[in-house]
Amino acid sequence: MVTQHVDLTEVQKESLADDYNLSHREKQIMRKIDLRLVLGAALGYSVNLMDRGNVGMAAIAGMLKDLDFVGYRYSLMVLMFFVTYVIFQPPSTVLIRKIGPPKFLSGIILSWGILMLGMGFAKSWSQVLAIRILLGVFAAGYFPGCMYLLSCWYLRYEVQKRFSVFYGIGCVASALAGILAFGLIHMDGVQGIAGWRWIFIMEGVITVALGVLCYILIVDFPDKASRSWRFLSVEECDFVISRIDRDRHDVEPEAFTLGRFLKPALDIKIWGFAILFCCLTMNTYAMAYFLPIILSEGMGFGVGASQCLSAPPWVFAALVMFATAWIGDKIQRRVPILYFNVCLSLIGLPMMGFLQSNAGRYIGVFLTVAGANANVPACMAWQANNVRGQWTRAFSSATLIAFDGIGGIIASLVFEKDAPHYRPGVYTALGANIVFFLTVTALALWYRRCNRRADRGEIIIAGVPGFRYTI
Fold this sequence. Notes:
Helix 2 packs antiparallel against helix 9, helix 5 runs antiparallel to helix 9 (195-217) and helix 8 packs antiparallel against helix 14 (311-331). The protein has 471 residues and is an all-alpha fold. It has helices at 10-15, 20-66, 73-87, 89-99, 101-119, 125-139, 142-151, 159-184, 195-217, 234-248, 258-262, 268-298, 303-309, 311-331, 335-354, 358-385, 390-414, 423-455.
């Protein structure tokens, strides 16, 4: 049998997108991207969360007493991190484009690793406060930078799984941080150094080492990735760029101007997503910074037990996160996932704040931590699905994470000096979840209305015929 050679046009080639060979090739390329980009970014974020949250572990291990953290000094120290964290968010998504992700992201990881080492040798609470302020400056760029970078590499209905792996590894690291802290405080007295100081010193060493590794692992944007440590060939980069461009038509980088960067500030949905993230992170930061203290002072567990019991809720959160992310990408819907997760928190918070038994309250901690943290990648995916344009995406990422910091400021003020039930914090967290639920509903109704108008030919969404908002 003679096989006739046929030259395919570009249109015919695109029609073969579901062909086995193309699908197999696509899977190989995406697996390569996942292993380098998602895991590299996730490793950096894991130490980011560990280094931000280890003050809670150190607090119950003797830091508060040794450095004279009386009154509201601990809350002030937690709060001031978020002040600089919010202020330095917007420039980060511009700088990552100018400097390049490998240098920018690995550089700030190294910087906060060095600051962690300095925290281990602080002599007063004011020195810890100063280091935390600087930590906010350097940590500000990492999360929005990674979020922006990841959203540039994947299709709209691939991102939630990747965001969940990225954020979920951080949650597992937060779980392990408690167990690691429990081990490190047993170095108390080694070289004449207190156990709580070893938490900062050893985690600082780990962070510096991962900063070097992330310089190798983290890759550039798709249009420049062929130059990233022989990561992808030029042909593979072109393939990735073409599939992204077919999905949302915004793969090409746009020249930066301040007006172009700030123009999305007039888009109401940008601020809707920011409000959602503020409500979410008010809950996540409250658990990250105060859970060991709640377990110790609120439920009466010892130092070691409080540090170890802080771990299981984060592991459970990661499992819920991965499961809901897989479902969300599979059904190509975001709102049902957001509703499900927020309901977990709305059930867990009253259990944590109003039940009398420690067992019931601890189950409430599981639901609260899982609901809030599982919704973080779900919210990020919803935002990434409904935003087009390079600098619109950059501005939206910056505002999202800036409001993340505002959530952290609120969390730092509402869970202090209210043991054993922390009712003011519980009421505030419940209010945040109700606002989250209502904001999701309002955005979903507006998106549905816009999609129906586009179906009738009355409007063109985001300037792209055929583009529809994800609900």
